[in-house]
Amino acid sequence: MKRIAVYCGSRDGAKPIFKQEAKMLGTTLANEKLGLVYGGATVGLMGEIANAVMETGGEVIGVMPEVLIAREITAHHITKVIETNSMHERKQQMIDLADGFIAMPGGPGTMEEWFEVVTWAKIGLHQKPIGLLNTNGFYDGLIQFLETMEENGFLSGPERSQLIIENTSERLIERIKENMQ
What we know:
This protein is of the alpha/beta class. It has 8 helices and 7 strands, in the order E-H-E-H-E-H-E-H-E-H-E-H-H-E-H.
């Protein structure tokens, strides 16, 4: 395992704990010698995690589609920036570069990207670990919804058990690494 793709907000969120956890996840990735693949911006949680990885001596690859370059300040201080023509190309690049995936708190874009890797795993397009960082209970509602999907036959038990859900960065990375053995 070399790199983890992290999907997260281009905003800081309403609670300081989100930024703190982004920094912690970035530091943990770098300390575990895992590179970061992310959306390529300097703003929000994306910027926090990238800065933390870089400050800890890790590798950061940002993937930024043309449509967002004007809106989100592209990080040029990271290891590598890959510009794509579309969001579809961005998502494919991130999936190809990553050996596992994590969603931190974020908005609809975070969920859209995370659910795509969940769906791809379900249909057998990859077998990479998929994590959900439930900082401060942010994803409690989603976790309940996943349970509702399972109870109603739209998500199988084995599919649901492939999702690694933890409340702290350290424990999530530990479990993802265990999943790769």
